[in-house]
Design a protein that fits this description.
The complex is a heterodimer of chains A (243) and B (42).
Chain A (H helix, E strand, L loop, with lengths): L4 E6 L5 H8 L6 E8 L3 E2 L2 E10 L1 H18 L4 E7 L1 E4 L3 E9 L2 H18 L2 E7 L7 E2 L5 H9 L4 E5 L5 H11 L4 E3 L3 E9 L17 E3 L2 H9 L3 E10 L2
Parallel strand pairs in A: 1-5, 12-13
Antiparallel strand pairs in A: 2-7, 3-4, 4-6, 4-8, 5-7, 8-9
Chain B lengths: L6 E10 H9 L3 E7 L7
Classes of the chains: A alpha+beta (243), B alpha+beta (42).
């Protein structure tokens, strides 16, 4: 936590004194700790427990962004946010937020703002289960079908990189064999063959390469427009000099 | 110093975000196989 921001998701019970220690600072005049606990009732129904589920690959960066924003907005010393996942019995902490600052006012304000942002924006969802017979458990608030679908569309890619001959293809071949249906290559690695200066040898797809399977072949203008519009996740330009 | 033209060819290679999303839509995790950049030997 070199940058004064600590966020985590955990399955076990939360420890308030641990999170206070995370933000402790000799130059702070206040530490504000918020502990969100699970309540035993909702709209007249008896809640028996809550289940929290998260999408950590998105939730951790969200928690970090919220914490970093609060830290700079209120000039805080440090921020720590820990959320519990899985089943949380009634009366136990599901979230702890600790904030340290030179003066208490900033710490109070920032702590409240962080909580509201976390509830509104992070990819963490809760489900209440009720004691009343016939009452189905219910996902609360920002849960999700829509969010889940978006996340699936945004599934993060894996980058395999290394110099020629280091074994990338061997590794990938094994990966595909061991986990059929799990991984895929992006089809449209786009290429432009255009030439600058003297030589003009624009090349057609090589043997074995089919347009639209390994590569989409596009013109220089199309390619440069895509670059300008920020459509690439990666691109490179290879220049060969013939002399 | 006199200048002269030297023959050069330049190729672009790249992967679009849309291409990665296409793979994700099929329920698969997209793999980007990226060659490491090397300085050309002079």
């Amino acid at each position: 936590m070199e940058d004064g921001v600590y966020v985590s998701l955990t399955n076990g019970p939360l420890n308030p004194s641990h999170i206070i220690d995370m933000v402790r600072s000799p130059s702070a005049g206040a530490i504000v700790l918020f502990a969100g606990t699970t309540r035993d009732n909702f709209a007249g129904k008896t809640v028996i427990h809550l289940d929290y589920e998260a999408f950590p690959a998105l939730a951790i960066p969200s928690l970090r962004t919220i914490s970093t924003t609060a830290k700079s907005r209120w000039s805080l010393h440090a921020v720590a946010v820990v959320h519990r996942l899985g089943r949380v019995p009634i009366g136990e902490e599901s979230i702890l937020i600790a904030v340290s600052s030179a003066h208490r006012k900033e710490a109070w304000e920032a702590g409240e703002w962080i909580l509201e942002e976390v509830k509104r924006k992070t990819e963490i969802w809760k489900r209440e289960s009720y004691a009343e017979p016939g009452e189905e458990p219910q996902w609360k608030e920002n849960f999700p079908k829509k969010i889940r679908e978006q996340n699936e569309g945004r599934m993060r890619p894996i980058v395999i990189s290394g110099p020629s001959g280091c074994g990338k293809s061997t590794l990938l071949k094994r990966l595909f064999e061991r986990h059929p249906g799990k991984f895929g290559f992006s089809v449209s690695r786009k290429i432009l063959e255009g030439n600058v200066l003297m030589v003009d040898t624009s090349r057609a797809p090589r043997q074995g390469e089919e347009n639209g399977r390994e590569y989409h072949f596009v013109s220089r203008e199309e390619f440069e427009k895509l670059v300008k519009d920020g459509k690439f996740i990666e691109y490179t330009q290879c220049i060969s000099v013939y002399e | 110093m006199s200048s002269r033209l030297i023959p050069v060819s330049s190729n672009y290679y790249g992967t679009t975000i849309a291409a990665v999303e296409e793979v994700a839509k099929t329920g698969r995790k997209c793999i980007l196989d990226i060659e490491m950049e090397v300085s050309p030997l002079q």
